[in-house]
Design a protein that fits this description.
By secondary structure, the chain is α+β, with helices and mostly antiparallel strands. It has four domains: 6-241 and 567-599, Immunoglobulin-like, CATH 2.60.40; 246-265 and 455-550, Immunoglobulin-like, CATH 2.60.40; 274-450, Rossmann fold (3-Layer(aba) Sandwich); 633-752, no CATH class. The strands form seven sheets. An eight-stranded mixed β-sheet has the order 5-4-9-2-1-14-17-16. Strands 21, 22, 23, 24, 25, 26 and 27 form a seven-stranded mixed β-sheet that branches. Strands 6-33-7-8-3-34 form a six-stranded mixed β-sheet. α3 links the parallel β21 (274-282) and β22 (312-318). α8 packs across α17 (716-733). The longest helix has 18 residues, at 716-733. The N and C termini lie far apart (63 Å). Residues 1-18, 157-161, 163-180, 268-272 and 586-638 have low confidence and may be disordered.
């Protein structure tokens, strides 16, 4: 994408507007971070000099430390990092003098968008722009084994701007969009094993090839030589061994401690606090693509069936406006009547509310705080196509004392800055769900996490004689079982390294020790500034997020000291020339989503015609209809139901049929199909050992629990919350006697075998 003067755009031939010819990504993955080099090749095939202004995405936590321009393989300009206004002035002055100039900036409104300005590229010249950055890797929880995920964003989705009442240009540039993209991307990734055993490398986004000829490095490439820029590149590295909960990484200027709490670390009594659940669902026009609204429907159904009895909840749909399911109260009690209303709303939910204005519903939630006895949990499902990321994140940070946000980014290219930022600001968690992905597992994991307390008071003690300049984070956020929390210390490089350094982690008022790391050497394998760059970026991010006390001068000084880009600095390089000629400004296409821009422009209308939205697939719409029908009562099941054999489909059916109180009301025919035995056999066995007046729903619920445990164990994450809810209801119906529940389950299990 290029900044362009309107009078130039109107007369520009369509086949001469894109000087960006090639993009290449080379990455090295370590256990906790990635080192990435992006190369972009610009070529001016015109008869006059051109200025290319190209917007592109990079992970929001990336520490950009290098920006180099190489012209015609002859001259190399290594850019310097300077205060942004000064860098922009230097760039403008260079162009005015006919010099070549190269500028790299970070968008202040959305920290995952960057802009390159390649000024006065001479006729026939070719320019290679190289950007270097390091980035923390996410630790996933959707696998039984620890899995790290590396993401290369390749698309910038058109983002709705409330101030413009329409789609905003990334980087707030004035652009002309090209409707096709002549360039693609090449990708290679080296996965370094170090002291870990790699069990599996996969990609949920693209077909890949893996070269294992080098025992210490796996080389990952894409099976296609060149790919379109229509989705993010995702690489998952599954590790075969479970690491200890505390590990360290060091270089000459910084120390990093990684802490992953175990269940023992987080052991505590069951959660008796009343929970207040809000489901905030993006129903803007952009959710119609890739069946994102279908993913949201499926996620909502699982959320709804997994909620604990006696909690309170509400559902909010938002777009250009927002609406709540319950308007007479902020939340209502989770019971049969209210659950049925929610299911009906889910059934009719479409991508029909115009633009993506997330700020309005969040402001309403802030104005309506939860009671002191409640903990508020917000589940946000969105494609993240908003431009006012900082404003939204700051509002959520103000609610962090009583609210946690669990955010889900849907589709090929959600704003990672938004989805991650909201979760971080409120001590929640985030997930990204690609199209055609099983959303259930992610939803179940997040809900389970929301229902358990976290370690909220981790204290770090740095035992070193070396002077510590900065510690990040200043205050440790809450951390869940299996999550990873990173601590950094930036050290005084003028002092010799202290080989007796140790780092201790404690939790609680009594400072119970939970982790220890000894640092007795500086490993050369990590490189001299790898950890230091990550630490500097973490420090800049923490200072930037503290918008109430933001110190621009401090941010600039840290950015320049450590050579890491921030929203208030920019990389600038100038190539001095003589005998200059005329130039013009020309646009570059914004990857392949540029074809969607015209359609996206209608999103700022008050309400879209639902016929314009992508139709919901048969399975999604029918499953929800069937769920609403079957959940009312067992008496409504007048026709014979055919039960699926497939494990996933069987779990889906059980989710649909579970009642609000956790019970399953199955018919005699259902029981026979599922077990091969009559309901009477199960009933007689239970009545003989327990009581004569036991309800049929108690028996059928126990049957479902046993079937889930014996036939669907691999999907336990998916059904665990439903099973727990059912078990609690059984206990209540059996006079609170846990021994009766155990006897019931024993009898049913014996009959099922």
């Amino acid at each position: 994408m290029l900044r362009i003067k309107q009078e130039v755009a109107s007369s520009m031939p369509s086949d001469r507007i894109v000087p960006l010819k090639q993009v290449r990504v080379d990455a090295k993955l370590r256990s906790f971070a990635a080192d990435v080099i992006i190369t972009q090749v610009f070529q001016n095939d015109e008869s006059v000099s051109v200025e290319a202004v190209y917007c592109f995405p990079i992970e929001e936590n990336a520490a950009i430390y290098g920006f180099v321009a190489r012209i015609d393989d002859e001259r190399e300009i290594v850019a310097e990092i300077k205060e942004k206004n000064a860098a922009q002035q230097e760039y403008t002055q260079a162009l005015a003098q006919g010099y070549g100039a190269y500028l790299l900036e970070q968008d202040e409104a959305s920290n995952d968008i960057f802009t390159i300005s390649v000024g006065a590229l001479k006729p026939g010249s070719q320019c290679h722009i190289t950007i270097s950055y390091v980035s923390e890797l996410d630790l996933l929880h959707s696998s039984k084994k620890p899995t790290i995920r590396f993401v290369v964003p390749t698309t910038i989705a058109p983002r709705y701007s409330p101030s413009h009442k329409g789609i905003a240009s990334p980087g707030e540039t004035q652009v002309a969009y090209a409707e096709s993209v002549p360039y693609t991307i090449e990708f290679t990734c080296q996965v370094e094993t170090l002291d870990q055993n790699v069990a599996c490398i996969s990609s949920p986004s693209h077909p890949i090839k893996i070269d294992c000829s080098n025992g210490k490095i796996f080389l990952v490439t894409l099976t296609q030589q060149e790919i379109e820029l229509d989705r993010d590149i995702i690489i998952d590295v599954e590790l075969s061994d479970v690491r200890r909960n505390t590990i360290a990484a060091i270089d000459n200027g910084a120390v990093m401690i990684s802490f992953i709490p175990s269940e023992q670390d987080c052991r505590q009594d069951s959660n008796n606090v009343t929970n207040e659940f809000f489901f905030v669902i993006d129903c803007s026009g952009s959710m119609a693509g890739d069946d994102k609204i279908g993913l949201a429907r499926k996620a909502m159904l699982l959320f709804l069936k997994s909620l604990p009895v006696n909690c309170r909840f509400n559902i909010i749909r938002f777009g250009s406006k927002f609406s709540a399911l319950f308007t007479d109260q902020v939340t209502r009690e989770y019971n049969k009547e209210n659950m049925c209303q929610a299911e009906a709303m889910i059934k009719d939910m479409g991508a029909d509310l115009g633009g993506t204005e997330l700020l309005m519903p969040l402001r309403w939630l802030k104005e309506n705080k939860p009671p002191a006895s409640c903990v508020r949990q917000i589940f946000l499902l969105t494609d993240g196509e908003v431009s006012n990321v900082s404003e939204v994140t700051n509002l959520c940070r103000d609610m962090a004392a009583y609210t946690r946000i669990f955010s889900f980014g849907l589709g090929h290219s959600p704003s990672r800055a938004l989805v991650k930022g909201l979760a971080r600001a409120t001590n929640g968690y985030f997930n990204f769900i690609a199209p055609h992905t099983n959303v259930d597992i992610y939803v179940a994991e997040q809900l389970a996490r929301a229902l358990q307390p976290s370690i909220a008071d981790v204290y770090v003690k740095w035992n070193t004689n070396q002077r510590i300049l900065y510690k990040v984070p200043e205050h440790a956020p809450p951390v869940f079982v299996g999550d990873r929390l990173l601590f950094y210390a930036l050290l005084d490089e003028t002092m010799p390294f202290d080989h007796t350094t140790t780092v201790e982690l404690f939790v609680g008022m009594q400072q119970q020790p939970i982790g220890l790391a000894r640092i007795d050497h500086v490993p050369s394998v990590l490189g001299s500034q790898f950890v230091m760059r990550l630490a500097a970026k973490a420090l800049l991010r923490e200072l930037w997020n503290d918008q109430k006390t933001i110190d621009k001068e401090l941010l600039v000084n840290i950015s320049i000291k450590y050579g890491i880009l921030c929203p208030y600095t920019a990389f600038i390089g100038v190539e001095r020339r003589f005998n200059t000629n005329n130039e013009r400004i020309c646009p570059v296409a914004m990857t392949c989503w540029g074809q969607q821009v015209i359609a996206s422009m209608v999103y700022n209308t008050e309400k879209l015609n639902t016929s314009d939205s992508k139709p919901v697939t048969h399975s999604t719409r029918d499953d929800i209809n069937q769920s609403v029908h079957n959940s009312s009562s067992s008496n409504s099941q007048t026709s014979k139901m055919i039960w699926p054999i497939d494990e996933q489909k069987l779990v889906d059916r059980f989710i649909e049929l579970q009642q609000y109180n956790g019970l399953w009301m199955l018919t005699a025919d259902d029981v026979h199909q599922l077990t091969g035995k009559s309901l009477a056999i199960f009933s007689s066995s239970v009545i003989e050992k327990l009581e004569k007046n036991i309800q049929q729903s108690v028996i059928t619920t126990a049957i479902v629990i046993i079937l889930l445990e014996t036939r669907c164990l691999a999907l336990k994450t998916l059904w665990q919350a439903l099973s727990n809810k059912a078990y609690k209801s059984l206990k209540d119906l059996l006079d609170g006697d846990e021994s009766k529940v155990e006897q019931l389950m024993k009898d049913i299990r014996h009959q099922c075998l």
